[in-house]
Amino acid sequence: MISALCLGLLLFIPVCNSFVQGGPSPLSVYALRLGPGEEILTSLFKFVKEKRLKAPFVITCVGSVTKATLRLANCDALNTNEIIHLRERLEIVSLVGTLNEEAHLHVSLADKIGKTIGGHALGDLEVFTTAEIVIGELSNLEFTREMDEHTGFPELVISPRSQNVTGV
Amino acid sequence: MISALCLGLLLFIPVCNSFVQGGPSPLSVYALRLGPGEEILTSLFKFVKEKRLKAPFVITCVGSVTKATLRLANCDALNTNEIIHLRERLEIVSLVGTLNEEAHLHVSLADKIGKTIGGHALGDLEVFTTAEIVIGELSNLEFTREMDEHTGFPELVISPRSQNVTGV
Amino acid sequence: MISALCLGLLLFIPVCNSFVQGGPSPLSVYALRLGPGEEILTSLFKFVKEKRLKAPFVITCVGSVTKATLRLANCDALNTNEIIHLRERLEIVSLVGTLNEEAHLHVSLADKIGKTIGGHALGDLEVFTTAEIVIGELSNLEFTREMDEHTGFPELVISPRSQNVTGV
In this protein, which residues make up the domain named PPC (chains A, B, C) (predicted)? Predict the structure, then answer.
């Protein structure tokens, strides 16, 4: 019993500290333009679902928004952090992250004096004039999320893509 | 007459709110290094023209500049917004967007205390020590721009690439 | 003697002002997830070495850190600039650059009020909850670095990949 526990701990530690990885994979790429009033996260979720993307991520995004809801830094699972609702015209100067069912996107936005504000994109990214977005899809990998007890969040798992799934 | 107008409105709304999209496309990738004194936008335009790129965009860019001219947020076609001319050494911490004839690039730049300033790159991005830039080109798509009366700007249009153009 | 000097100057100017470039290249792509306590630069160097990547760069990165050591702007070879050691939870809102043996990465990080700070990533980027990173590798190019007397730094050189190297 004790030795099984020790073995468990021994096995556990490397898994905890080693990184999860996948590739090399070929890449398929999509480009989108969203127009005034469209919400970026909703549009991306819809796009990923329609195209049945399995391992998508943002390559680049340029545009402007009239709103944004961000969760700021210093957040952990027990002490959920400040959420801010911006209501002003902002330029998108970065949008980074992965786009599977539970997307993980961070954004930085520049205001009318050039000051940038950044954090975890929760939604409400309503396009002002345009959003031009390039999406990459890893052809032979699959992104899923599993609850990670060390972080309290569902974290990215990278797997080889199942080749024999019927109908996909 | 009225019904034609109604039909026009009905047809108009989905076009306005639906997004323009293209892909999946294979990707060709280029890497560049610009040296001291080179201007980033001019160099990218020249590169895109020389290589006859049809659907290019920035994948990543790292480097430093001695100047930058940025158009700040809160800009619309009727009320053109503040333009600032920065004259200091700045680190490029993001450069995002598409690179067809009328490129649409946003940048964020960090100063000597780490403060970042961001906006629409208008030009004057003169390299201080280096700029390492990776450019993606979507092999089967083409980026053009058409005036969008809803925004007052020429906005991105994504089309399948013409296969039968002579001499290209 | 004078004409040789003139020739030298004539040859020098175009080299100084022309950019170094490579491509088009196909792209192979890798995805990683780093967990709590892992250091991003160390993990990326290890990954690049293990996979024997020759022309790697960051496509996207999303995550959070508890620390960061950044070299701020206004740095040149003679007047090495301020280095700051951040010790707080920060969201990664951009990570840009190339990843050969002497990587060149810039980062911008958002704090608990959304304020972003950016600069050259020197190390110490210890993961708080997660870091999801997508790495591109240019299949037919190779990145090396050579000292550039105009900048005082080892700068990026982009070369066609040697096809006949034994054992690679």
Answer: 24-159
Beta-carbon separation of B104 and A59 below 8 A? no
Query: Which residues pair with residue A96 across a beta bridge?
Result: A106
Q: What order of strands is seen across the sheet that includes strand B127-138?
A: B83-86, B68-71, B116-123, B104-110, B90-98, B56-65, B127-138, B27-34, C20-25
User: What SS3 state is found at A128?
Assistant: strand
Q: Do C31 and A106 touch (CB under 8 A)?
A: no
Identity of the residue in B28, B37, B94 whose CB atom sits nearest the CB atom of C23: B28
Contacts of B104 in chain A (CB under 8 A): 62, 130, 132
Number of H helices, E strands in chain A: 2, 11
- From the list B37, B111, B134, the residue facing C57 with the nearest CB is B134
Q: Distance between CA B120 and CA C1 in Å, rounded? A: 49
- Enumerate the H helices of C89-140 as residue ranges: none
Q: Which residues of B touch A93 (CB under 8 A)?
A: 94, 96, 106-108, 118-119
| CA–CA gap between residue B41 and residue B71 (Å, rounded) | 14
- Whether residues A30 and B23 touch (CB distance < 8 A) is answered with yes
A35: nearest CB among B17, B118, B152: B17
- Residue A124's contacts (CB-CB under 8 Å, 6 or more residues apart) are A39, A67, A68, A69, A85
Q: How far is residue B132's CA from residue B134's CA, in Å, rounded to a whole number?
A: 7
Contacts of A51 in chain B (CB under 8 A): 24
Please give the CATH architecture assigned to the domain spanning B23-140: 2-Layer Sandwich (3.30)
Per-residue pLDDT 10s for chain B (168 aa) are: 334 433 433 333 334 334 599 999 999 999 999 999 999 999 999 999 999 999 999 999 999 999 999 999 985 556 668 999 999 999 999 999 999 878 999 999 999 999 999 999 999 999 999 999 999 999 999 999 999 988 888 999 999 987 644 433
Cα separation, A58 vs A97, in Å, equals 6
Report whether CATH 3.40.50.300 matches the domain C27-142: no
Tokens of C58: 């960051």
Q: Number of CB pairs < 8 Å for A and C?
A: 159
Judge: C34–A27 Cβ closer than 8 Å, yes or no.
Answer: no
**Residue B43 CB-density burial (10 A; 0-12 exposed, 13-18 middle, 19+ buried):** buried
* Spans of all domains in chain B: 23-140
**Fold topology of A29-141:** 60s Ribosomal Protein L30; Chain: A; (3.30.1330)
